[in-house]
Amino acid sequence: MSRNALILGATSDIAVALARKFGTNGYSITLAARNLEKIRATQADIKIRQRVPVEIVSFDANDVESHQAFYESLPAKPDVVISVFGLLGNQTEAQQNWKSCQDILYANFIGAVSILNIVANDMEQRRHGVIIGISSVAGERGRQSNYIYGSAKAGFTAYLSGLRNRLCKSNVHVLTVKPGFVKTRMIENIKTPGPLTSLPSRVADDIYNAMAKGRNTIYTSSIWRPIMYAIKSIPEGLFKRLKL
Fold it and tell me: Does 149 qualify as catalytic in the annotation?
């Protein structure tokens, strides 16, 4: 029986790597994105290299009013749904401009909750499925350099935790992914430490393997677990004086 993976936010580098990974493992792929022209090349490439069916569908994470109709229009209900979309944004601009702040909140939290509520209700009824949410280590503790993005991701992490608690009795698994630095277009203008920066293909491998093992939460790469433990352990009186 064919298995289908729906990838929400399919233009990102991590999304493309995930599509290839799931396709290699026999999943048919549905790529969902706002700009379909950007994913046509990915569609063709996966069809040729992975030899699996690949559909592309229009999806706008920010247009929450369209999410129910979008999901109902899918030709087949997915076995796996991966929420990859997100927006790092500019912290300084978001502090001063509500529209910029709102864009970050919608892209990283509100839009994801909107579509995953719909997915969760369907999978709960079918008693089958996997939901994978790409959160971030930035949600572990607020830092002056990106606390608006981080707070949205913190909310998303908490949402996924609650969803996992709700759906486990219905045979629906929820995996929370907390990447650190990943070499993608999102951070192409940010200098990151090489040893702490993963390739999208490595992240996709980690996610697929974690799903197969039924893991609940993973860091990619695993070195971020002790790093974030150390950061969270810094007393608030000291932490608030640090420039992070």
Answer: yes
